[in-house]
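Take a specimen:
=====
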Amino acid sequence: MGSASSGSPPGRHPAGVEVMSVEQLRSRIGRSHQDRPLRPTFHHLLTLVRGTLWHTVDFTGYALVPGMWLWVRPGQVQQWGDLHEVDGTLILFESDFLDRATAAGAHLNDAHAPVVYEPDDADHQRLTSAAEHLSHAFAGPASSRSTCGRPCYGTCWPYSCSAFRT
């Protein structure tokens, strides 16, 4: 995958998706990546658990706080705000990672879809749970299974994407 982070997914995970904490992102990108606009070729989904992040997408500024989701689509210009006062989860994925039905339901290729999403309580719980499962799946092999025993990224991700339907 390209670089929000300058790295590629670890070999033990499926090609086309990577999940990391904001802390991991801070350690992987230099200040130069935060200070200049970037045009990634893959999706960024970001949610916070602490702090306020000012993030620019297509030259419009957004204040992201816990409970909100930021979705930067391929080709959009983004610029990171100060990552030192926030914590959260970043999910990076290629456009072809999701199956067609999930991609259609999530409006994956909608260039006019909202950048910031504030889910209702039910969707918030579903999205938070999916992000937690994905974080555990990417933390290491021992934690990469859901309670049903299947790989977490295969069982929870499609359901969380449906929460972004408009």
